[in-house]
Each structure stands twice: as C-alpha cells, then as structure tokens.
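Appendix B, example 12.
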Amino acid sequence: MKKFWRIFKKVMIILGVLSGATLFIVVLTSAIKHKQAEECTALQVKIDYDSGLSFLDEAEIAQRVNYLSGGNIVGKTLSTVDFRTLENEIEKNPYVDAAEVFADQSNKVVVDVVQKRPLLRVINNDGVSYYISEKNERIPTSTKFTSHVAIALGSVATHRDTKRDSAVQAALYNLVQYVRQDEFLDAMIDQIYVKENGEFELMPKTGGHVIMFGNGTKDIEQKFNRLKTFYREGLNKIGWTKYKTINLQYEGQVVCEKGDTTNVL
C-alpha cells in the first residue's frame, strides 16, 4: 500500500508539472498571437548622435522604413512587419554600421541606428574624396556633415571595386590606427602625404617641419618611438622650428635637415 501511494504521488507531481508547462505554452502562444494582432502605434528612430557623428537624420530613416513597409508603418499589424528585412535594408545605407528594429511594449516600432565611424579621410590626386572607417570600409563624403579626422593626400589609388584598392590604402589604415591609439601622436599628426613611390610624409600640427616616414607597412612602432624621443630630448631644447625635415627612414637614426646642413642624431 505504501508503495502504491509513493507511485501515486510521483504520478501526480509529473502530471502537475506537465499541466503547468502546457498552461505556460498556451498562455505564451496566446500572448504572442495577441501581440502580432496588435497595430503599430508609433515609429521612433534613434541615431547615435552622442558619437559626434551626423551623417544621418531621423527623417530619412523614418522615410525609408515607411517605404519598405509599403506605406506608413503606423497602424500596420505588427505581424505583417518584417523586422529582419527592415534591418538588412537600413544597413545597406553607406553611413550605417548596424541597425536594430523592434516593437516595444507599447507597440511602438523602434529603429536603433549606429553610424559608421571614420578613421581617415582620403583626398587623392584624381580628386576623389572619401573616408576610411574604423572597420576599414569606405564611406562616401557627405554634404550634411564633415568628420574632423586625419587627412591623407596624394597618390592613393582608388578603384570601383574596393577589394582592388592599393596596398597604400591598407598601410594608411594601419598607420592611422596606430596614431589614434597614442594620445601624443593623435594630437600631433593630422595630415599624411602619399608620394608616388608609396612613401609617407607626415605633417604635424605644430612646428614647421615634415616627417619623412617612408614605408608605412613596417617598423611603425620603432619609427614613432624614435620620433617621440627626438621631440622630447631634442626639439624641446633647441626649438620646434629649427629643422625643415625629420627623416625616420634610417634604422636606429633620426636624420634632420636644415637648409643646406644635415644633422644625424
């Protein structure tokens, strides 16, 4: 008899658990169906303006969402809104890094947009101008907003197929990434001139000299370490306008030129 009651209690517990799970599924399914049957009450676009970027405005994103929805999305049944397609289409905008579209608890459709962040602006000898993003993607310039980042001028080859872009552009990306991570260098360097042979000349914001950096694909850290040491131990003592060029292309050396006189340090 005791064995019977033990088995009976176990069966009742199992039945109770199953009944609870079934009830939960029914309630959840009912809630989902009820939610899907509800209508969009409003459209809200959020853009990360706190990043300091203003390539996009809320009105154009809202207009795009309404167009993709076949008309005004407000009033449409939520079950008919293809949130994934809206995200994918918005992310095709050349200034959009990521987009998230969802309905909140008040049935408002929210579009959360993150803009691409420029790392460098290129203005090449062909008159072509564009940005390179922090993810090494090309961003077109905009009449609405100008991002104040370092500028690369000169011989930077640009093709319609970005995969064919020159090794020079890849070197620029690596160089500027390094500069941005160093507080002193980031405050110092804002222009890079690319010579026809692919070598770089850096234009510092202060001082009347040009930094002959050479190839931008190797020894970046060593060259900048020599430059910072020279600034600290050399120019701080003798003056920042003494030399016309500072050459970092020679291993272990900083070669400075003033007029007709060349000094090796």
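Residues 50 and 114 are 10 Å apart (CA to CA). The radius of gyration is 30 Å.
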